[in-house]
Design a protein that fits this description.
Blueprint (H helix, E strand, L loop, with lengths): L4 E5 L4 H12 L3 E6 L4 H10 L3 E5 L5 H12 L7 E4 L14 H28 L3 E8 L11 H9 L5 H6 L4 E8 L15 H6 L9 H12 L10 E4 L4
Parallel strand pairs: 1-2, 1-4, 2-3, 4-5, 5-6, 6-7
Helix pairs in contact: 1-2, 1-8, 3-4, 4-5
Length: 240
């Protein structure tokens, strides 16, 4: 029986649910985050019982992030893998960007990762084993969309891997970033008037990735299957 535990931010997303399912099928325990809705993850609870625990947290609120990390996260003795699949996106014209929108995107898609990692990585070092996998977006390679600049900017921040993880702690912790291409999820519905067919036509393979394909890659990098890959920004896309 596997005694490892993964903490997944954005566990209620389409990719998050599929990722949790794979870890659970591989006998991992899952600590899953959600914000507004946990309907999809509740199905996992019904199937896997106590092996998946859920927690609600508004990651746009920096004070709530810090309080949760100190009171709830710090006491947990063992977290073997940390996977972040946060994907806050608010469709906004560049001219209408403001401070609140900027902070909301940064807090959810980037700052929350820093705080969680800060409270998790020493547990990994103590246990002499750990995996960290953050997510970025293929859109960062193209400067983001006209209405999704803040999303791309905040996800791009995850591609800056702290030097202490690249070198000092590499013996125990393998830390990577997965740059995800266009995937068949409901995230696209948050962008009004998005011409998805036109976007797909720009992909050399002429199709979106499936959540299964992306989640399989996540597991391969954030589990014991990964015995070497470290400090890399890895694309998973159809050639974008």
């Amino acid at each position: 029986m596997n005694n490892r535990t993964v903490l997944i931010l954005g566990c209620s997303s389409d990719i998050g649910v599929q990722t949790a399912h794979i870890f659970l099928e591989k006998n991992w325990k899952v600590i899953g985050h959600y914000n507004k809705s946990k309907k999809k993850t509740v199905k996992l609870q019904k199937k896997y019982g106590a092996r998946i625990k859920l927690f609600k947290l508004d990651l746009s609120n920096s004070k709530k992030i810090s309080t949760f990390a100190k009171k709830k996260l710090a006491p947990i003795k063992k977290i073997d893998s940390f996977v972040s699949l946060t994907g806050y996106i608010k469709s906004t014209d560049f001219d209408h960007i403001n401070h609140k929108l900027f902070l909301d995107h940064i807090n959810v898609n980037y700052y929350s990762n820093l705080i969680f990692i800060k409270h998790i990585y020493k547990k990994m070092i103590h246990n002499k084993w750990g995996r960290i996998l953050l997510s970025s977006s293929i859109s960062t390679s193209f400067g983001g969309g006209e209405k999704t600049f803040l999303y791309s900017l905040s996800k791009f921040s995850n591609e800056f891997i702290p030097k202490i993880f690249r070198n000092k702690y590499a013996k125990y912790i393998l830390y990577n970033v997965l740059k995800i291409g266009v995937t068949d999820t409901k995230l696209h519905l948050k962008i009004p008037n998005k011409n998805l067919k036109k976007r797909i036509n720009l992909i050399p393979t002429k199709r979106m990735a499936t959540t299964q394909e992306v989640s399989d890659k996540i597991f391969s990098l954030a589990s014991e299957e990964n015995t070497l890959v470290h400090g890399q920004i890895i694309n998973i896309s159809g050639g974008e």
